[in-house]
Amino acid sequence: MKKILFIVGSLRRHSFNAQLAGYVEDKIKDKVEVSYLQYRDIPYMNEDLENPEPIDIRRIKKEVMEADGVWIFTPEYNGFIPGVLKNLLDWLSRRIDLQAEWNQTALANKPVTYSGAAGKSGSAKAQAQLEVLLPFILMDVVNKHTAKVQIKPEDHKTQILTLNKEEEEMIDFQINDFLSHLNVQN
After folding, report:
1. How far apart are CA 3 and CA 24, in angstroms?
2. Which pLDDT tens digit goes with each residue over 126-183?
3. Contact of 6 with 156, CB cutoff 8 Å
4. By CB neighbour count within 10 A (0-12 exposed, 13-18 middle, 19+ buried), where does 120 fall?
5. 89 Cβ partners below 8 Å, 6+ apart?
């Protein structure tokens, strides 16, 4: 069974993007193995820390390399991807080890897609940044369809993400594209 690693770009316990990831997981869990990358405690990217590499960095690189694909769920903070997500991607874009070539990273050629839940834009600006960043760090971006979920005013009151029919359809299209790219029968 193929493995998809979910990366949630928010560390908030009940984040809307974690809820969106859970929604997608429910839809695909019979077709692929889903796991979530835990990266809350990684240090800030600092070349001085690369040798020896922190244990948590080795762990997250290993988890990414073992996955057949990565799905990023990103909020949008002040029109950008969250700093914690950027920090994670910076670490993962570094060479596997100091003897490796510059393009031998945990992310190189790894299939990736991304979705997001945010205010009125549904994370459009953050997703536009990922559209530029992910190919730059050598990922195989599968973004024919991406889901941009708007957090509604009532969601903020209840702290529960709700999806309308159009958003559910966007996610279904994205699931189909990504699973097809990974050669998973849908």
Report:
1. 14
2. 999 999 999 999 999 998 889 999 999 999 999 999 999 999 999 999 999 999 999 9
3. no
4. exposed
5. 107, 133, 137
- Stated pTM of the model: 0.96
Rounded-to-integer distance, Cα 90 and Cα 165, Å: 35
Q: In sequence order, what are the residues at sequence separation of 6 or more whose Cβ sits closer than 8 angstroms to the Cβ of residue 167?
A: 147, 148, 149, 150
Q: Please say whether the dihedral angle defined by the alpha carbons of residues 25, 27, 29 and 34, taken in this order, is positive or negative.
A: negative
The residue with tokens 């990023």 is 72
Give the type of residue at 24. V
The amino acid present at 181, given as its one-letter code, is H
Amino acid (1-letter code) at residue 30: D
Question: Rounded distance, CA 54 to CA 72, Å?
Answer: 23
